[in-house]
Amino acid sequence: MELISSSLVIDIGASTTRVGYAGEGSPSQLLNSCIGVRQLRVPQEGSSAENYGQSDTTREIIFPLNFSQRRDCVEVVPALFPSWRGAIGKRKIDFNPVYTLHEEAFENLVAISCTGARAAPFGRRGDEVYLNCVDPNGSTRSPESTLRLTELCGIGADLREQPLLLSEPNIHSREVREKMAEILFESLQVGSLYTAKRALLACVALGRSSALVIDMGASGLSIAPVSDSFVLDQHVTEWPVGGDAMSQLLSAVLVGHNLPVHPSFARFSAQSRMVKVSLDKPGDWDNVHPSYVHWSRMQTLSFLKEGLCRVADDPRDVALAQKPIALPSPQQQAKRRGVATAEASGSSQLIFPCSTPASAAALLSGSSGVEGGVMELPDGTRLEAEQLATKLPEILFCPALVSSVPGGGGGFPGLPDAVRQVAEAVETDGNRDILSALILTGGCSCIPGMVERVNRELVEDPAICGGQKVRLLAVPGSSERRYSTWVGGSILSSLSSFQAAWCSREEYEEHGPAVVQRKCY
């Protein structure tokens, strides 16, 4: 089948965004799915007495964000993020309270990541989007300088000339989909657009038209049945148990052992004295916005987690991993730290340290490694972490452990039961062909031992899919499995048979944002 290249593919996840050209085997850019917003006060023009001392507030957009670098007074705004307040028990989740599209963040993320304007705001002349090629000192940048910026962030594409394929969450939302189309066509002047659900793109990456897709992402777990290249919206389920939940559990365990987790931008020397830090004034980063501290801490936790975790597969290891976690209560943690509770300060999602013991200094920088069940921190501190290494990913399989996660996991029943519920609903509707293949994708699927454990729990247990023979499909390479949604978009948008599916600008001008409902599945 003939392949057509040059279209753009963007996969926006809760944590990272992947950008690149169709036909390529991997994305060209991996960026955080958020922007930074800094409020600036600019003095008003004129010297009249009534204007004396007054100023206007402007907004500075910062993208991409490097959370290893400290930035004062910068609020982090994610582009597309889920809210799990609607996930109660086994009730179907309504999309509207789950995903929120922040229009400014989405627009800047797409524009800058595609056009390549790193650390320079994109502007408009009339209906034209252009790169700001002027240095802060007022001189015009040379073509070579502009090219270097493009190499650092973005792919130097022309949104008006190249079609754009955009991934979207599996749970359908007409409002979010149409708002994304409106921004892309009206503000960014995209020439052609297609939106596709992430589960469908994962199927395309593995050459399947029907499968049950299990996406283990940062924000949560998604189970989506795909039949004849259509995602069955009524049977899609999502749970707030994923990479972020593991990071939060790791944070609670470390804080419970007096090992505070600092943001990745924090720097301490080996001679740093121990100081007490209140929740209101965390360390020497008083001017850093709480959202920036939170994202930076999550980066530290993610870094440690990726070097630590492995999935238990031996029955004895599984039994040990599923033992309850003994965590101190929030009041006990606060007493150990000598500060007020997080709830009392209004920052329940942020845990700030009160001291910096020598054994915790390694959490601030460097790399971590695990050998023989021992986690060695960069300063040489060795922590016995064999049980912790398997217990973090075990929250995907054991409902009893999910209660240890902040928020309680929204009533998550465990992966086997969650898949069984979807399989029963699909079988009732007569779509047994879906259950012939299970596709495993997402960042958490790359944890060592995850594929083998999922195969044992789901494929080798005939009761999961009603006695039907099932195959587990997972790309061998961890990087390909992590980015399989983007790879599926790259394949789909390069097929010659797909070119008639694009929503053109002419169709948008005739039908409005509703055109994506009519042409995108």
From TrEMBL:
Record Pfam families: Actin
SMART domains found in the cross-reference section: ACTIN
Keyword Secreted listed: no
Keyword Methyltransferase annotated: no
Annotated InterPro entries: Actin, Actin_CS, ATPase_NBD
Protein family membership: Belongs to the actin family.
Annotated protein name in UniProt: Actin-like family protein ARP4a, putative
Taxonomic path: Eukaryota, Sar, Alveolata, Apicomplexa, Conoidasida
